[in-house]
Amino acid sequence: MVQIRTSTGTPYLYHPFQALFVAPISTTFGLDIRVGYYSGSVDLATTEALEVFNRGVRETSTIRHDLNVSSSMLMTDILGRFNYDSRLQFFAGLSLGYNLSGTYSQREVLLTPGNATFSNGARQRNTRTGQLESLSSIYAGITGGLTYEFPANADKTMFIAPELLVTLSPTNLLSNTSWLVQRMRAGFAVSFIPFAIEDELSDIELFDIARNAPMRQNTDIATVPVPSVSAAGVNEAGDVATSSSIRIEEFASNRVRPLLPYVFFDKGSNSLSPRYRQITKEQVASYS
Predict the structure, then answer these.
(1) Euclidean distance between the first and the last CA atom of the chain, given in angstroms as a whole number
(2) Cα angle at 104 between 102 and 106, to 5 degrees?
(3) In terms of CB atoms within 10 Å, which end of the chain has fewer, N or C?
(4) Measured CA distances, 62 to 6, 59, 65, 116, 244 (Å)
(5) Per-residue pLDDT of the chain (288 residues; tens, 9 = 90+)
């Protein structure tokens, strides 16, 4: 049995499918929750030198041991998003995963001598495939990364944001083998920000429209009920008088209140912004 300690081959390549939820908490901090499905594989190879007899002649043979491992998992990333500025952002948080399945395939290939074969008459042997019975269930790690938004058009309504995430994990891929898998994920996102809609009417014009708007008449009631009141009172002499009267008064008024009675200043400025329409001293006396 050959134990692969050092080998050459391809990195553990993953093909992710991921959903992302972003929740801004403040202007400098936010929360990213990512849920994804990852499937990938890795090819490993190592060589071994063995003394063999080839047609009665003692020779040194070279055997290559090939191993391919594939696995799939569900993983959730809970990351804090830190806004360094309006474009550069950093990530840090935890990654938790559950390994769904794992398979392997292996073989031994006789490289040298070129005129020899294994005992089975072929230059390959021990070709096997199967399930990884010792696949670890849980994957956990610490994840960090960064992203930067590049404007994709002159209006700066569309952005392209490449990102890089690195996950360092202390958990082994196999429960009975020391085999750590560290992940590096790279990709990009395309985002679109619509134009800001500005109100073309000033506050004074909005107040005038609200004040002069006609009141809605209720036409749903076919007949208006006429109430009648029968009352008796006590006069100053203490006698019961049936000529008491009740005076009913009705008042109708319109009152307008601003929905947001605040004034916002631009950052670093103590002057009113040009977006607020101001009136002159002459207009103050006639304003109502």
Answers:
(1) 96
(2) 175
(3) N
(4) 16, 10, 10, 11, 123
(5) 445 554 444 555 666 678 888 888 998 999 999 999 988 888 888 899 988 777 778 888 999 999 999 999 999 999 999 999 888 999 999 999 999 999 999 999 999 988 888 888 899 999 999 999 899 999 999 999 999 999 988 888 888 999 999 999 999 988 988 888 888 888 888 877 776 666 677 777 777 777 777 776 666 656 667 777 677 777 777 777 776 556 677 888 777 766 666 778 888 888 888 888 888 888 887 776
Q: Where are the domains of the chain?
A: 8-192
CA distance 119 to 245: 124
Separation of alpha carbons 105 and 71, rounded Å = 12
> What sign for the dihedral angle of Cα 213, 214, 220, 224?
positive
Under a CB-based contact definition with an 8 Å cutoff, are residues 95 and 140 in contact?
yes
In Å, how far are 19, 158, 252 from 193, measured between CA atoms?
20, 6, 46
